[in-house]
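Annex B. Sample input.
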Amino acid sequence: MSTILLSIGSNTFAKTNIDKAKRMLTRLFPEIVFSQPILTEPEEEKYSYLFRNILAKAETQMTPEEVIDKIKQTERAVGRSPKDKYLGKVIIDIDLIQYGNEILRPGDFERNYVQQLLAMLPATESSATNVTPDTTSTIDTEAADDNRE
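Annex B, continued. Sample output.
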């Protein structure tokens, strides 16, 4: 089993869309735990509304690629569509930022709000040992994000 860390955000009907994503993710990962939400300012000019962000931690036997596939399916099921991003709307965005000890999205992992949420994230039962993440190996999920729309 590997521990995964997901970053989940929305700036459009954010509470409703994040709640919907949480329900779907709980079906995929029954032992998943979620942080409390935090509101953040958009980092890009094309987004004009505040973002609601949460983190989620779960255990899985899936590979990173399988997890990414499942979270992309979840995004589509919640209502994400390619055109929304260009309109400054983020219906839902779910990113796999850590898999086991590997940080897959170092830029996201280092964001202030992610670090704040990480400190507030409840521990999963199997994460009793604290392991320092390995930031040297990455999977190019940024490219996958660009191609999913």
